[in-house]
């Protein structure tokens, strides 16, 4: 199964059917649920190192963006 960003998920390890994936970016919660056998996995990623790294990359990209990016030839 693929989600909106094209990450592939394997089938349910218990029944082999596809699962539903939901992510809440505001709370950093992720949820995978198999409709067929009702197995659910939930995880909160608040405070994880990778989330911190991604947030730093995102804010750096936004902070470093300038209105003349690529036009002036200077850094």
Question: What does this entry show, briefly?
Answer:
The protein is α+β, with helices and mostly antiparallel strands and 75 residues long.
Describe it.
It is built from 1 helix and 3 strands; from the N terminus they run βββα. By secondary structure, it is of the alpha+beta class. A 3-stranded antiparallel β-sheet has the order 1-2-3, with no helix packed on it. β2 and β3 (40-44) form a beta hairpin. The longest helix is centred in the last third of the chain and has 16 residues, at 49-64. It is elongated, with a radius of gyration of 18 Å. The mean pLDDT is 86.
Cα-atom Rg, whole angstroms? 18 Å
Give the biggest sheet: 3 strands, antiparallel
- Low-pLDDT ranges: none
The backbone outline, from C-alpha atoms, is elongated
Straight-line N-to-C gap: 42 Å
DSSP helical segment count: 1
Strand content: 15-25%
Task: Order the strands across the largest sheet as they lie in space.
Answer: 1-2-3
One letter per element, helices H and strands E, the order comes to EEEH
- Total number of strands: 3
**Structural class computed from helices and strand pairing:** alpha+beta
What portion of residues is helical? 10-25%
């Amino acid at each position: 199964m693929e989600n909106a960003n094209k990450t592939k998920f394997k089938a349910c390890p218990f029944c082999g059917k596809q699962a539903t994936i939901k992510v809440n970016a505001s709370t950093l919660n992720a949820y995978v649920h198999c409709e067929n056998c009702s197995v659910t996995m939930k995880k909160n990623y608040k405070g994880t190192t990778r989330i911190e790294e991604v947030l730093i990359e995102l804010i750096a990209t936004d902070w470093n963006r300038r209105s003349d990016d690529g036009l002036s030839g200077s850094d």
